[in-house]
């Protein structure tokens, strides 16, 4: 487990086990005998069903169909067996392959689905990897998904913005992801450095960010940009060359386990995503006192940033406007300081203490509804 969803899952599991005394079990299908990437409390149990869906990536298209169907039957049988054995009060699905059958398992548990991607981009393909067949499949897949989501006791999304796209459902609840950092250190805002964090993929919009930075670096010659992320950096290296960006003041870095230190050594955070499920890095940066300049992409930034107070929203994809607003902020240290203070207040709203209350309130209401239904 090494992604953002896994980190949030680990954080919530640890918190509910340690502070609320919940009996938490995480059921996995991959990575048998491999250690978890993020540390888990010894009060949290792990069951690995060892389905190995990753094998599908090695199969031809025709073989993949038969292997998938076989593995899906095995998955349903093993998961059903575990749920009947555990008899949990709640079963929370992260809406992977189990959503196709989770509601049919009558183990007595309340079924909750939790989505970490916005609806419009849940089954999206990169522009270069899209075609008519894949687009038709995506539409069919979404109709099937909605059918299963309607049967859940509760469906949790991360933003109010995304909630509007699921208007066909009446079981919706908005609960943001919790902040994974402790707010014990704050940037002193003395470093003339802008930071961005994310994977080197089309979604994160680093191509647009570099176009904006090509403008900013000429206006602000003593500032630098550093990007930390996983993935293939070569396409972005080519963009730097084509735009003749100063390599001494623009750095494409690999991911670091000390990302909080990098936030603290910066003064502004820039967010260039074309779309998101939430935007965890925004509240991470804000928790370190960084004002954020962000594209107003779907979904996340609008729910997190109050434009002009704790950060700045930019029309999605408009790199010229991003360059202008980034330049204006860089040249206004008073605004940086004021937004920093407001950003800290905003980040506190996403603390695990506050987010856990929303989850616990939902659990309590679902239990009460279940009791009332029995009566």
CATH superfamily of the largest domain: Glycogen Phosphorylase B
Percent strand equals 5-15%
Strand-pairing-aware structural class: alpha/beta
**What is the chains' assembly state?**
single chain
Task: Give a description of the structure.
The protein has 375 residues and is α/β, with parallel strands linked by helices. The protein has two domains: 4-179 and 352-374, Glycogen Phosphorylase B (Rossmann fold); 193-348, Glycogen Phosphorylase B (Rossmann fold). The chain is built from twelve helices and twelve strands. The longest helix is centred in the first third of the chain and has 26 residues, at 61-86. It is globular and about 65 Å long. The mean pLDDT is 93.
Helix-strand blueprint:
Elements (H helix, E strand, L loop, with lengths): L3 H16 L4 E5 L15 E5 L12 H26 L3 E4 L16 E5 L17 H18 L4 E4 L2 H4 L8 E3 L18 E5 L8 H14 L4 E5 L5 H9 L7 E4 L5 H6 L3 E4 L8 H8 L4 E4 L5 H4 L6 E4 L4 H12 L2 H16 L3 H23 L1
Parallel strand pairs: 1-2, 3-4, 4-5, 5-6, 7-8, 7-10, 8-9, 10-11, 11-12
Helix pairs in contact: 5-10, 8-11
């Amino acid at each position: 487990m090494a992604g953002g969803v896994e980190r949030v899952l680990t954080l919530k599991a640890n918190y509910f086990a340690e502070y609320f005394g919940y009996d938490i079990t995480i059921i996995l299908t991959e990575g048998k005998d491999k250690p978890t990437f993020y540390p888990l409390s010894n009060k949290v149990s792990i069951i690995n069903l060892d389905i190995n869906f990753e094998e599908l990536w090695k199969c031809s298209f025709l073989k993949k169909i038969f292997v998938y169907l076989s593995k899906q039957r095995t998955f349903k049988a093993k998961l059903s067996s575990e749920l009947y054995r555990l008899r949990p009060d709640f079963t929370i699905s992260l809406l992977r392959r189990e959503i196709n059958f989770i509601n049919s398992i009558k183990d007595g548990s309340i079924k909750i689905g939790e989505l970490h991607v916005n609806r419009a981009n849940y089954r999206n393909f990169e522009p270069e990897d899209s075609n008519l067949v894949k687009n038709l499949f995506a539409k069919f897949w979404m109709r099937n998904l909605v059918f299963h989501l309607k049967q859940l006791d509760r469906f949790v999304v991360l933003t109010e913005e995304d909630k509007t796209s699921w208007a066909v459902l009446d079981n919706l609840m908005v609960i943001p992801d919790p902040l994974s950092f402790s707010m014990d250190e704050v940037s002193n805002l003395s470093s003339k450095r802008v930071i961005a964090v994310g994977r080197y993929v089309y979604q994160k919009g680093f191509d647009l960010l570099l176009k904006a930075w090509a403008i900013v670096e000429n206006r602000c010659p003593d500032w630098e940009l550093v990007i930390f992320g996983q993935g293939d950096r070569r396409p972005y290296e080519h963009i730097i060359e084509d735009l003749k960006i100063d390599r001494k003041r623009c750095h494409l870095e690999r991911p670091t386990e000390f990302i909080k230190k990098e936030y603290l050594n910066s003064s502004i955070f820039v967010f260039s995503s074309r779309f998101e499920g939430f935007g965890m890095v925004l509240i991470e940066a804000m928790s370190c006192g960084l004002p954020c300049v962000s594209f107003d992409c779907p979904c996340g930034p609008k729910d997190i940033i109050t434009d002009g107070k704790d950060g700045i929203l930019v029309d999605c994809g408009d790199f010229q406007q991003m360059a202008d607003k980034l330049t204006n902020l860089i040249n206004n240290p008073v605004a940086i300081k004021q937004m920093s203070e407001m950003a800290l207040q905003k980040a506190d709203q996403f603390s695990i203490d506050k987010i856990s209350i929303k989850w616990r309130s939902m659990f309590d209401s679902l239990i009460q509804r279940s009791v009332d239904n029995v009566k």
